[in-house]
Design a protein that fits this description.
74% helix, disordered C terminus
């Protein structure tokens, strides 16, 4: 059943992507598939949790087919894009033609395939995955038929967001195998690779230079090792990088679907891991700089409203549940009081925020150069 569910999401993503873009790109499709899959799973599973039917797989499949079918039908009807013309668009997707580019793509593919084989044949066996706030959390939800934390004697279950765990819940609920858990982080690594490539292309680098950037990205041991961890670091990184990539695309071509995708990816990241909040000062500074340069203040207000709505839908469930159960948005009165919960957040902010500001400054300077 998991194959049917994944195929449904692929078709659904292709229809949305094909109806909103004239020219299709493989890297952009991967980003859209990633965002659409996470968003759909979050909304469906949270809705099922409200009715305490979280462990019934056929209900998930029925809801998924209804949502994908209805939205696809409405999009095809409104955009007046026929299935044959959509297929022509898909076949027109172009890949790098240089031999060196193809060689690097093959190298990246070999690395990803090797990690896939190891992951699909090995059950979770590291402390990061077996931590009470990760995979154990998913099995508890299935047992309780809902996303419930009231009887868990662990504060971290209140403070840590749930979006990445909902993806693991989807895979185990529909696929029935704990070996599938690694797919969340493994595909997040793919999204990181294509997003790095896409950002490099947006900044004016050639396809060869962009592919080199992607290879450098997967050469870091921490990126590869996180593929087998259920902490969600790769997933939150993939969502943040996707948000930056789509924001750059909007800055260049002014497509509304890009800015919606950027806002959606950022909102999902905030509901995936608390470390995503560290990027908000830098992203906020970038938005302010953009508004000062373009003076599009009035045009920005609708997007702010859309962003708040998306944030509530994709991230608000966990925090609203905390308020209902404990009276506090993060589940505790002072999240910074306990070093185990804050995880030295202030020390991280002291070094990371200036570093991100410097990176963004370099990016804006690069964009201002004449091409």
């Amino acid at each position: 059943m998991i194959i049917i569910s994944i195929v449904l999401y692929i078709i659904f993503s292709l229809i949305i992507y094909g109806c909103t873009y004239e020219n299709l790109r493989f890297s952009k499709f991967i980003q859209f598939f990633f965002i659409i899959t996470i968003t759909s799973n979050v909304l469906i599973l949270e809705g099922m949790s409200l009715f305490h039917v979280l462990s019934i797989r056929w209900i998930f499949m029925c809801i998924q087919m209804i949502i994908c079918g209805v939205i696809s039908f409405l999009l095809l009807k409104k955009s007046k894009v026929s299935l044959p013309s959509l297929w022509i668009k898909i076949k027109s997707i172009q890949f790098p033609s240089k031999r060196i580019d193809r060689a690097m793509i093959i190298l990246i593919g070999i690395v990803l395939c090797a990690f896939f084989v190891v992951g699909i044949t090995t059950p979770p066996n590291n402390s990061d995955s077996l931590d009470p706030t990760h995979l154990t959390r998913i099995f508890y939800w299935i047992q309780q038929h809902s996303i419930d934390s009231t009887s868990l004697n662990n504060i971290a279950n209140l403070t840590k967001p749930i979006n990445v765990h909902l993806q693991g819940l989807w895979l185990f609920l529909i696929g029935g195998s704990e070996n599938l858990f690694f797919l969340v982080q493994w595909f997040s690594l793919i999204v990181v690779i294509v997003s790095v490539y896409d950002i490099a292309r947006s900044l004016g680098f050639s396809s060869t230079q962009s592919l080199v950037s992607s290879i450098v990205c997967i050469s870091f041991p921490i990126a590869l090792l996180q593929t087998y961890s259920s902490q969600g670091d790769l997933t939150v990184a993939a969502l943040i990088i996707t948000s930056i990539s789509l924001a750059l695309s909007y800055n260049a071509q002014k497509r509304w679907v890009d800015i919606i995708g950027a806002i959606l990816a950022l909102s999902l990241a905030l509901g995936t891991k608390n470390t995503a909040f560290l990027t908000l000062p830098v992203i906020g500074l970038s938005v302010i700089v953009y508004l000062i340069k373009t003076r599009e203040f009035k045009k920005t207000l609708p997007w702010v409203g859309a962003g708040l709505l998306i944030l509530i839908l994709t991230t608000g469930f966990h925090f609203i549940k905390n308020i209902k159960e404990t009276g506090y948005i993060f589940g505790v009165k002072n999240i910074m009081a306990d070093p185990a919960l804050s995880n030295h957040m202030l020390e991280k902010s002291e070094y990371n925020i200036p570093r991100y500001i410097y990176i963004y400054r370099i990016r804006w300077t690069t964009e201002s150069y004449p091409k």
